[in-house]
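Project standup — Tuesday

K.O.: blocked on the structure for the chain from last sprint. Re-posting the sequence here as requested.
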Amino acid sequence: MSKKKKQKRIEGIFRATEKGYGFIQIDEQKEEIFVPRNSVNNALNGDKVQAVVYKQQEKDRRAEAKIVKILKREKETVVGIFQKSKNFGFVVPDDKKFATDVFISKKKCKEAKNNDKVIVRITKYPEHGKNAEGEIVEIIGNVNQAGVDMLSVIREFELPNEFPSFIIEEARRIPKKIDNKDFKYRKDLRNNIIFTIDGEDAKDLDDAVAVSKNKDGNYILDVHIADVSYYVKEDSNLDKEAIKRGTSIYMFDRVIPMLPFELSNGICSLNAGEDRYALSCSMEIDLKGNVVSSEIYKSVINVTERMTYTDVNKIINNLDENIVKKYSKYIDKFKLMEELANILKKRRISQGYLNLDIPESKIILDENGKAIDVKKYETTFANEIIEQFMLTANETVAEKFYWLEAPFIYRVHEVPDYDKIEETNKFLFNIGEKIKVNKDNIRPKAFSEVLEKLKGTEYEKVISTLILRTLKLAKYEEQNKGHFGIASKYYCHFTSPIRRYPDLFIHRVISEYIKNNYNLTDERKLELNEKAKKYAKSSSECEKIATKAERDAEDIKKAEFMEDKIGKEYFGIISSITSFGMFVELDNTVEGLIRFENMGHNEYFIYDENRKTLVGEKTRRVFKIGDKVKIRVIEANKLLRKVAFELREDDENAE
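H.V.: unblocked you, prediction finished:
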């Protein structure tokens, strides 16, 4: 008698979908394991689980598993909308992947009223087909009350909305003026002409720049970054809080900062006309955009002018006589910046830099926090100037410390999976294009060549989005693995220590190397390397949470803006095709779903996964990504964070 083959047991994190099935993520394993709906066994999104793999991975099919044990619940509390009945209440979670409403007994409802946003502590998790049970621990406010929507996101992701009092006290003890005793260790650049260039609303100014030319005709690019590590000492309470937060989070009318405002908007902000300590990177760049030499050093600076992208753009393009006149003595400086940025960008593109055309949204709120406008965030070449300068500084610092074999945190963007590229190529085939790669030679240049060919065509934005989905997520690691999207062998985040912990950490490493004449003990290197590994991982996790929170906040506000647009008609572009319908993006960046039943003609649509098309069974009409279509808004719900459209006949009466 043959022995029954022993089934493999695994442990990992369960990631649920809104449809009830999910996937198990296992550390260091690329492929996720599929869990069908009937094998979830009451696991909830984010739970650590043990499962049995009963179907092994095959060429065109994922491995499948059944969850047999829940090792650790991820959520102890849930944010949702309270609904009251005569003898009990229940909460509908904001997180649609939570998969169960939460039953609340009458005595555990507190003073919650219908349609209040609340926080519920789970007292009993779902089992045997029964809902979870819980008790209300906080009433955030009525769903229609100003600010409750954003506060709900903050609570849902357990974001640290306020600093503990002892952290604020520690920040307030830091002097508001620089301490002159440290001058002897720094280059005094206070008489140099230096600019910050940021958006009009920016308050935490952590980077400043200057450009000149030397006698050889090469450019000298100076990038000065706020010396935050001078004030936030290793293992201080401020440092521990910054590690926990990992990053600043931006949500329209509010920011959840990594550091208290006393620092981020005060002594650590490079405010014009005020002496500030900086960590500086000075680079000599030739006429082809190559960095031929560099120096990293401590400095003291005094920013000459606080410039905005808008004003710099007006100056370099001579768009506003008054602005040009106001800054007339600096025009040559800004023209030199434009010149160098063009050279750097040209070189970067020649190396395969992926210049993805995916506009960000700009959401305008009224005084009560309600969305009153949604539009594309317009950028100018002034934004490009700062981007190119910061990219170059980040690369230069990363390369220098890589060759020093220093403990470090790198910004890593690995080579995409070949199978995903092949999927994208199936769509590109329809428009006569292809990303030309093989398994052993995947270069960013192959992607950028396709993007360049399609620039200015109807497919430009769609292909940018498709390529973005093909790429892996960037993350932080203690090992340098290059940055595929930037086409760079060495890359780190050096330029924003006020709002990103990896930048702050490597500033501390750089400062220690400078102080010790680039000679650290093996013991100290080992200690710093362990910290680099730990902080790279925690910062990557914090970044994921921040990104999700910011996206959810954006979805809420976009849906809110569209709520009074029901019945209005617009033209849009098909941005995605699925087995249940298609997504259409309007010119203002709002995206909505058109389900099959809202596509007209009462017909069945055939989904071609390879070509990413829908074909009408009766009419044979083909819908493909990039097509322009006319839609009518039929649903917009900020509570569900979704917008839905129906397809209209193509005429000219649309906005």
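K.O.: great, moving the ticket to review. The chain has 13 helices and 31 strands. Residues 566-648 form a domain with the OB fold (Dihydrolipoamide Acetyltransferase, E2P) fold (CATH 2.40.50.140).
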